[in-house]
TrEMBL record:
Cellular component GO terms held in the UniProt record: plasma membrane
Spans traversing the lipid bilayer: 236-255
Domain of life: Bacteria
E.C. designation(s): 3.1.4.52
PROSITE patterns for this protein: EAL (PS50883)
Membrane topology: Multi-pass membrane protein
Keywords, sorted A to Z: c-di-GMP, Cell membrane, Hydrolase, Membrane, Signal, Transmembrane, Transmembrane helix
Organism: Bradyrhizobium stylosanthis
Subcellular location: Cell membrane
GO molecular function, one term: cyclic-guanylate-specific phosphodiesterase activity
Ranges of residues in domain EAL: 261-514
Record-given protein name: cyclic-guanylate-specific phosphodiesterase
Catalytic reaction equation(s): 3',3'-c-di-GMP + H2O = 5'-phosphoguanylyl(3'->5')guanosine + H(+)
Pfam families documented for this protein: CSS-motif, EAL
Length: 529
């Protein structure tokens, strides 16, 4: 009887421990799933807002170009030139010359005036951060449009009429598509467009995610049925609960958890000390010919046991713990040493590497980069700094000064993740970079979504206006290559040519491509998957 009591107490303790961890696991897992859902939906809301901002950027740039060419008049020659301009830019439906009070003087396509239900006065238009730019809703038969007004002098202004395509908002995951609504509106509540599969069926218990533009009076809202949201992306719940039950069997779990929290950072430090972080090389190629013109280096962690740790498992921790700077210099130095013979023999070949905004703005960044590149005996113009947009460039003026200094020394600068990151197109121009990199998000949908094609065309057109080159990321099919070429993109990277490769395999790929190019006539050059 006495021996049964300790066993009973131990069993009770184990059961209590399991119950406590099960409860904690339920709370933590539910919160984690909800946070992940909120983060994902917040990103989708941001995508809709960025797409809308790009459309306004595009309209404003078009109006600036027309004004700069002296076409803000109603004479027939000017109107003909404006019509040609509108024809070449599919997102713009019409351009109108208006008085200072907003009343219409003339229109490139005067017949579109017949479709207006009404026209707002200037006092009802909404101001942007740019005081010369105002936005308003144009109510038309068959659907509303967005008016973008740009002041031209004191007495008149140009207005671009942008069609609001509902397909721009068709971004929801398949599981939520029939249970959600995506809305674009002005800050005064005037709705510009929406996507909802069944407009006649209201959402019973909507949960709302909203985001407002800091540059324009635009607001995007995603509403989702709470019931559908509760069952979306919850696959992790039961595995997490199983882990919680298992942890309930272990004593001293708090101590082991605290050690694990310290462990990853210590692992990073040991990896840096041992030189375990290696560059992998992904080709950047000419979309028309397939010729490899450069590469981007990407971090991989090669442990002593031969296992390879993918970047998503250590880059966020390296950034948050401050180890990313030492890791970047270690990887760049090794990549320059590996590629040194090729960089010396091919002066047009370029190597690019990623830098987070905090590192770019850190003290001594330019000086350290120069010393690393000089020590490698490589030309600065063959090195491109890719500024990633996971974090926003809070001090744009300081960042622009760093970019100018880099360019003065011969380095090139690219902005990564354009279209889904933090920078609007006007900020890109202020930053003064050489290149923009179109995010894989757009490449994935360019062959199936007409709105993506429009956005990529706008990016290319504005990049040319800013005298920047364009590189598309994440290319996987020949159909994507053809679609990108038709939009005016000339360079890209992606698994179509190669995944990120260790240097030996990348060097073999360069040698193979060189041999193929030497054996084939120039006219027969093709993209080799």
């Amino acid at each position: 009887m006495t021996s049964a009591r300790p066993k009973f107490a131990m069993a009770a303790l184990v059961l209590a421990s399991m119950a406590a961890f099960a409860l904690a696991g339920h709370i933590a897992t539910t919160r984690f799933i909800q946070d992940q859902q909120a983060h994902h939906l917040d990103e989708l809301t941001e995508v809709v807002l960025r797409r809308s901002e790009f459309a306004v950027d595009f309209a404003a740039a078009s109006l600036d170009e027309l004004a700069g060419r002296g076409l803000a008049t109603c004479d027939p020659a000017s109107l003909q030139a404006i019509r040609l301009h509108v024809y070449q830019r599919s997102a713009v439906k019409d351009v109108r010359l208006v008085n200072s009070d907003g009343s219409v003087i003339c229109s490139a396509y005067s017949e579109t005036l017949e479709f207006d239900k009404g026209w707002v006065e200037r006092g009802d238009m909404l101001a942007s951060r740019d005081s010369r730019l105002m936005l308003f809703r144009v109510e038309q038969f068959g659907g509303d449009a967005l008016g973008v007004l740009r002041d031209i002098g004191k007495n008149k202004a140009l207005v671009a009429i942008l069609g609001v395509n509902a397909s721009l908002f068709d971004i929801m995951p398949a599981e939520l598509r029939a249970h959600s609504e995506v809305v674009l509106a002005l800050n005064n509540g005037a709705q510009l467009g929406e996507f909802i599969l069944d407009a006649g069926k209201p959402l019973p218990q909507p949960v709302e995610f909203a985001k407002s533009s800091t540059r324009y009076p635009l607001r995007t809202v995603i509403r989702i049925d709470r019931t559908a949201l509760s069952t979306w992306n919850n696959e992790a719940y039961w595995p997490a609960m199983a882990v919680a039950f298992a942890l309930g069997l272990l004593f001293g779990v708090l101590l082991s958890r605290s050690r694990r929290m310290e462990g990853p950072v210590a692992d990073l430090d040991r990896g840096l000390a041992r030189g375990e972080f290696m560059p992998f090389f992904q080709p950047i190629f000419d979309l028309g010919t397939g010729r490899i013109k450069g590469c981007e280096i990407l971090a991989r962690w090669l442990r002593e046991d031969g296992s390879v740790v993918p970047p998503m498992n250590f880059i966020p921790l390296a950034e948050s713990s401050g180890r990313i700077e030492a890791m970047t210099w270690q990887i760049l130095g090794r990549a320059l040493a590996d590629l040194h013979p090729h960089l010396r023999s091919d002066k047009e070949f370029k190597l690019s590497f990623n830098v987070v905004p905090k590192h770019l703005l850190s003290a001594g960044f330019v000086e350290t980069l120069r010393s690393v590149v000089t020590a490698a005996k490589v030309s600065a113009r063959q090195v491109m700094v890719e500024v990633t947009e996971r974090d926003e460039l809070d001090d744009l003026g300081r960042a622009a000064a760093v970019v100018r200094e880099l360019r003065d020394y011969g380095f090139r600068v690219a902005i990564d993740d354009v279209g889904v990151g933090h920078s609007g197109l006007s900020r890109l121009k202020e930053l003064g970079a050489n290149t923009i990199k179109i995010d894989k998000f757009f490449v994935d949908t360019i062959t199936v979504d007409a709105s993506t094609t429009t956005i990529v065309e706008m990016l290319v057109a504005l990049a040319r206006d800013f005298q920047m080159t364009v590189v598309a990321e994440g290319i996987e099919t020949h159909e994507q290559v053809r679609a990108l070429i038709s939009c005016g993109v000339e360079e890209g990277q992606g698994y179509l040519v190669a995944a990120p490769l260790p240097f030996a395999r990348f060097n073999a790929l360069l040698a193979s491509r060189a041999a193929t190019a030497a054996a084939a006539p120039v006219d027969d050059a093709v993209l080799v998957a």
